[in-house]
Amino acid sequence: MATYLLFIQVLLFLLSVVMLRHLYWRTRFFVHMFQQSGYKLNEFWLWMKDHWNSHVLNGTHALTNILLLLFVVFIGHWFTPTAPAVIISVYLMIWFWPVDLYRRQEKKPLAYTARVQRLLIPVTLLVILFPVLGALAAQLLKGMLPDVYMLAFGWVFGVIMVPFWVLLAGFLTKPIEKYIQKGFIRSAQQKLASMPGLTVIGITGSYGKTSTKFALASMLSERFSVCFTPGSFNTPMGICKVINNDLQAHHQVLILEMGARYPGNIAELCEIAHPNIAILTIIGKAHLETFGSQEVIAKTKGELIQSLHPGELAVVNADDHRVMAQAARRNDISVIGAGLQQGDFTATDIRYDASGCSFTVCHKDGRQVPVRTGLLGQHNVYNILFGFAVGDHLGLRLETLALAVSRMEPVEHRLQLKQTATYTVIDDAFNSNPVGARNAIDVLAGFQGGKRVLVTPGMVELGDIEEEENFMLGEHIGTSGIEQVILVGQKQTKPIQDGLRSAGYPEEKTLIVKSLFEANAWLQQHLTKGDVVLYENDLPDMYVED
Questions:
Q1: CB under 8 Å to 145, separation ≥6 — which residues?
Q2: d(CA 91, CA 64)
Q3: Looking at residues 25-52, what average pLDDT do you find?
Q4: Which residues lie below 8 Å from residue 291, measured CB to CB, with a gap of 6+?
Q5: How many CA atoms lie within 13 A of 424 on its CB side?
């Protein structure tokens, strides 16, 4: 008898270990999704609703609760007191051992920032609440009800409640985070006020902010000491972190990338760091799910230009009528236009090859300079033109700027040229948008001599226009002349498949795979030296195909 009781105790202990493991990975997953939501409660809640059946409350939770209910109400009295412990424990361990749903390769891993660490305190307390209560109730009810019922209920209910506890913890810590953020903002503003000779350049737009920032930093570094935000640091706290930690007294230029998901976001950033020069790259359809329309996007991005003081400079995309409309709202500032069709700075004779891109930069006053760069794509030509406009305004010679451009390295995962043992790779795996995706296809189509292959899962996070834009992308691909298309994911790429058919693209040249791993295996088997592969877009961590 003692041996049997020991067996039951060990079984319940193993059950607790399995459930604790599952609880850890599920908690980590939802904390990561909260971070990916920008710590915004409303966006996290919307994500939860979109993934309610797949991640928040899935079939495992429902089946487990049904089983427990059956045992308690209908079946339990048919068994000996210890039999349910064996049946329920084995069942739960089998069902809750897999954590692949939450433990997957992450494009952008969970960053254990100070904010996440503060969030984890209430999250951890809330997450362990029901397992602990279940264990206590199991002991109190021992003799009246087999303790496995309450123990199992505590674990299962604790697992179910994880996303709600993360949401509640975010709500509870929000006042603390606001107080901390205000302190960071005050410090950043005071530091900028102590550097009156500093030139602050703000960059915004639907696309191209990060690549424009890196191009501009490289070009201005030929003469000036430049500080700029790394990666996609384009939020209030990201900007404050750079100003407070990275900006030094010797810096002459500060380049800030300014992102927005809601109206007023750019104005908020400009209150932290007032720009002397504003660059507006393009007004497109990114984040339509939060803005609602391109008109709202235009007004929000235009907040950067509206923040300029009289006499300051706006550098704008002369080919984008929405951008030009924002510049036209100010008649008391200087405006320099850059574009491929028109503007003060233009580019002609654009050519692509395996080593990069070449073109000629022309100024409206007749000055010209040839440019060679390892960067690919028309959008990079725009970015470089913006750099020429700012550099010329600050007194740099065009030849000096062209030399800086020749030394530029591509931003990681943004039309980045790579070489494998057998073929050339164009890595454009950063989150894609309609304009950038078409430009990338055009770059691939411009390569000559070998097989041209596209690998893509399509575009996401485009709101109501996502299906339409992916259909049009499929049509664009179908008329590009490339030899092979590999689509990752049957469901999410269906609009692209429809677009390819609409364009008359041969179905035998379209391959649909389940994963990037499967796509890479095909490439290894079928490509030879001289072939070119474009990886266009990589799904963000928050995106899961149900």
A1: 72
A2: 8
A3: 90
A4: 261, 262, 263, 297, 300
A5: 19
393: pLDDT strictly greater than 90: yes
| Dist CA 436 CA 442 (whole Å) | 10
Residue with tokens 């796509």, as numbered in its chain: 519
Which CATH superfamily hosts domain 195-406? Answer: Mur-like, catalytic domain (3.40.1190.10)
pTM for the full predicted model: 0.73
- Sheet strands side by side (includes 313-317): 226-228, 253-257, 199-204, 277-280, 313-317, 334-339, 345-353, 356-363, 368-373
**pLDDT per residue over 251-294, tens digit each?**
999 999 998 877 888 999 999 999 999 999 998 766 656 666 77
**Distance between CA atoms of 425 and 452, rounded to whole angstroms?**
10
The structural architecture, per CATH, of the domain 416-536 is: Alpha-Beta Complex (3.90)
* DSSP conformation class of 367: -
- DSSP-assigned letters across all residues of 208-261: -HHHHHHHHHHHHTTTS-EEE--TT--SHHHHHHHHHHT--TT--EEEEE---S
Residues 6+ apart with CB under 8 A from 430: 411, 412, 413, 414, 537, 538
Q: What is the pLDDT of residue 495?
A: 93
Put the strands of the sheet holding 532-536 in their side by side order: 416-419, 424-428, 532-536, 452-456, 484-488, 510-513
Partners of 363 in beta bridges: 345
Nearest to 446 by CA among 416, 496, 482, 410: 482
Residue ranges of alpha helices (H) inside 128-235 are 129-140, 147-160, 162-193, 209-220
Say what the alpha-carbon torsion angle 486, 487, 490, 496 is, to the nearest 10 degrees. -120
The SS3 assignment for 379 reads helix
Q: In this model, does residue 207 exceed pLDDT 60?
A: yes
Domain boundaries, the chain: 2-174, 195-406, 416-536
